Amino acid sequence: MPVIPLRPRPRVLEFFAGVGLARMGLDSAGFETAWANDISDDKAAMYRAQFEDDVMEVADVNDIKAADLPRADLAWASSPCTDLSLAGNRTGLAGAESSAFYAFTAVLRALPDDERPAALVLENVIGLSTSHGGDDLTAAIREFNELGYSVDVLAIDARRFVPQSRPRMFIIGSRKPVAADESEHPLRPAWTEAFFNDPTLDTHRVPLPAPPNYLADGLGDKLQKVPNDDPRWWDVERVRSFVDSMSPVQRERLDKLRRQNRRYQWRTAYRRTRKGVAVWEMRPDEVSGCLRTARGGSSKQAVVRMGYGKVDVRWMTGAEYAALMGADEYKIDGFRDNQVQFAFGDAVAVPAVGWLAENYLKPLVAGEFSAAAEDAAAHG
User: Which of 73, 86, 182, 322 lies 20 to 30 Å from 231, alpha-carbon distance?
Assistant: First the structure.
C-alpha cells in the first residue's frame, strides 16, 4: 500500500503576539507558529510558559530584520490599538503606539516578493473603521495592496463564542487571486461597503458559512467559585456604596435580581464618570463587558452576584479574564493576577481566531478560494 504523505502544517509569523491567544486559535485549526514576537518581557514570559518552545523573540518590531524570519504561509499581527480604541485617545495610525502597524508592514516590505506569506491578518479594534473618518482603515488597506495583497474586512464579536462582548476587526490579505463573492454576510456589516466599493482599493470577499449566533448568557459558567468567606468579596460598606452610586434604573435592575430565590444571577459592572460623578453601571445581560486594560483608560470590571435577598461584589480575577477569552486552560499559575488581567485584556479571543482560521485562513492559504479552484469545484 503506497504511503500518502501528510500535508505540512501551514506556518505562521505572529507579530505583537502578546501571550499567544491568536496562536491558540490558529493551533486549533492546524497551523504551526514558526516565529513570534512581542516587546513585553512579562507577556513573553507567559507565552513561553504556555507553549514551552523558543519561537518568541522579545524585541521592538522596528528592530526585526526580515532576513532573520523563517518562511511562512501566514503573517498575523495584533498591532497595538491604544490610539484607535474608544477607550484610548483616538489619534489613529499616526499615534505613538498604533503606528507600529507601519513597522510591521516595513518588515514584510523588506522580504523578497516571492518570500512574502500567501496571506496576512491584521486584528484590531472596530475603532479603526472610523478613525479619522475611515481614512486610517483606507490607509491600512492601501498599504496591504502595495505589498501585493487583496483585502477582505470582517467584524467578529467574541460574544458569538464566549459570554463577553468584544467586537474586533480582522483585515485579511491574500496574495493569490480570490474568486469574487458579492453576497451579504453578517460578519461584513454595512459600514464595510464603503471600503469594498472604493475603486482605488483592491478588495475581495470570500464565501463563508454563517457564524454562531450571539450568546445571551453563560457568564456564571465562566466565573470562579469563590467561597462566601473569601476576603476578595467586598465588605458591607463597600457594597452599600456600590449600590448607592447607581442610577434609579440601575438600582431597580439590581433589586429585581436580588429578589430571585431559585439561583444566583451574575452580572458585570464598570465604574463610569457621569456629569463629573463616579457611578457604577451594571450590564443588563449575563454577558461580560469587554475586558480591557487600565492603560486604555477603563476601570476594572466588577462581578456582581445577586439572589436570595443579597448582593455581593468583588473584582474579576485573572482566571476569569482567561476563561472569558476562551483560554480556560491557560497556564497562569505563578504569574501576578494584575499581570494576567493586563495581558488578557489586551488580547484577542481564542475561539474567534479558531473560527476564522478554520473557515477562512486555512482554505485561503491552500488556494481553495482561487478562481481556478472555484471552476474546478463547479465542474465536478
Answer: 322
Give the cell for residue 293. 486594560
Tell me the three cell numbers of residue 190: 454595512
Task: Please compute the mean of the pLDDT values over residues 356-370 and round it to a whole number.
Answer: 95
Q: What is the per-residue pLDDT for 93?
A: 46
As a whole number of angstroms, the distance between CA 115 and CA 71 comes to 7
Q: What is the pLDDT of residue 96?
A: 44
Predicted confidence at residue 179, as pLDDT, reads 83
Minimum mean pLDDT among 96-110, 202-216, 249-263, 292-306: which range?
A: 292-306
Give the span between the Cα atoms of 23 and 13, in whole angstroms: 10
The cell numbers describing 176, all together, are: 493569490
Q: Please check whether residue 155 is in contact with residue 189, taking contact to mean a CB–CB distance below 8 angstroms.
A: yes
* Cell numbers describing residue 58: 522579545
Question: Of 12, 13, 19, 81, which one is the catalytic site residue?
Answer: 81
Stretch 209-233: mean pLDDT: 97
pLDDT (0 to 100) of residue 52: 97
CB neighbour class for 52 (10 Å; exposed up to 12, middle 13-18, buried from 19): exposed
Q: Tell me, what's the pLDDT at 5?
A: 52
Taking residue 238's Cβ as centre, other Cβ atoms within 10 Å add up to: 11
Cα–Cα dist 234/45, whole Å = 32
Structural domains of the chain in order of their starting residue, each with its CATH number: 11-215+348-378 (3.40.50.150), 225-316 (no CATH)
Contacts of 174 (CB under 8 A, 6+ apart): 118, 119, 149, 150, 151, 152, 204, 364, 369
CB 69 within 8 A of CB 48: no
What's the mean per-residue pLDDT of the chain? Answer: 89
User: What is the C-alpha separation between 101 and 79, in angstroms, rounded?
Assistant: 6
Give catalytic status of residue 81 as yes or no: yes
Gyration radius of the chain's alpha carbons: 22
